Amino acid sequence: MGEELLYESRGRSVFLIINRDKRRNAISQEMVLSFIDYLDRADQDQDVRAVCITGAGESAFCSGADLTAGTLAGPEEGALSGPRAFAELLKRLARFGKPLVARVNGPCLAGGIGLMLSCDIVIARNDTFFRTPEVNVGLFPMMIGALLYRNVGRKKAMDMVLTGRKVWAPEAEAMGLITRAVDPASLDQEVEKTLDLLTSKSPIGTRIGKDAFRAMSDMPFDEAVDHLCEALIRVLSTEDAAEGMAAFIQKRTPMFKGK
Question: Residue 52 phi/psi, 5° resolution?
Fold first, then answer.
C-alpha cells in the first residue's frame, strides 16, 4: 500500500499524490483504502495543517475508476469494496477537519471530480477540462452527484452528467465548479501561495469553522444562524483566538498552537 498513492510532507502541508500516470491516474481499490488511511494519518498529525490532493505527471489529475481493474466491483465483495469504498472516501473527505486543496494538473473525469469537489479550494490549469463521461458507457455519476448539486446549479450539473461533454477550466471557474483557473506555468506557485495562507491560520479555529459550516449547510436559516453563533462562542474560548486578537492589537504575527 502506498505505491499508487504517495504521502509527501512539505512543511506544514501534506501532498497526497495519485501515482498512476501511465493509467491516467485512475482510481484503484487499493488506492481508495490508502486515501482513507492517509487522511486519518494527516488528521492525527498535529504538525499537518493542510492537505493537497493532486496527480502525478500531466496525463490527468484523475480519470476516475479503473474499469479494467474491477474498481467498480459489486457489493458482494465486502462492505468497503467497489462503490461503497468510494462512497466512504467521499464522506471522510467531507468530514475532514483540515483545509483540503486540489491541484488539478490535468483532465479531471468521473470519480476524479468527486475527489476534486471534496476539496475546499480547487486550483486548476486553465488548459485542462472536467468531464463526467459515465453516460457514454451505460453508467451514471451517482455519488459525485451529491457534490455537483452542492457546488453548481441544477441545470449546469445535469448538462454535465447527461451529455458527458468536456467543461474547460475557464467555464468550470465561471460556473463555480472550481475556485480558479490559472496559467499552467503558475500552477505550483498558486498552490504554494494558497497552502502558505492556509497553514498560517489557527488549526482549531479552522476545524470548528469547517465543522460548523458543514453542519449548517442544510439547516433552515434561523437554525443555521443559531448553530453558527454557538460555534463562534466555542472559537472565542480557544487560546488561539486570544492569541490572534492580542497579536492584532500588538501589530504582530500571531503564533497559533491549535489550542
Answer: -115, 130
What are the tens digits of pLDDT across the range 57-110?
989 999 988 877 555 555 455 545 688 899 999 999 999 999 999 999 999 999
Domain covering 5-199 in this structure, CATH number: 3.90.226.10
Residues of the chain with CATH 3.90.226.10: 5-199
Cβ proximity of 38 and 15 under 8 Å: no
Residue with cell 490532493: 53
Return the percentage of the chain with pLDDT > 70, whole number.
94
Those residues whose C-beta lies under 8 Å from the C-beta of residue 123, and which sit 6 or more positions away, are: 101, 102, 103, 104, 178, 179, 180, 182, 187, 190, 191, 194
Instruction: Evaluate the CA torsion angle 100, 127, 108, 170 in order and state its sign.
Output: positive
Strands 50-55 and 13-18: what pairing?
A: parallel
CATH 1.10.12 spans which residues of the chain? 203-250
* CATH code reported for the domain at 203-250: 1.10.12
* Widest pairwise Cα distance in the chain: 62
Which DSSP letter does residue 77 get?
G
- Taking the C-alpha atoms of residue 96 and residue 42, their distance in angstroms, rounded to an integer, is 10
Q: List, by residue number, the catalytic residues.
A: 134
- In the chain, the amino acid numbered 149 is Y
Helix 82-95 × helix 29-44 angle, to 10°: 20
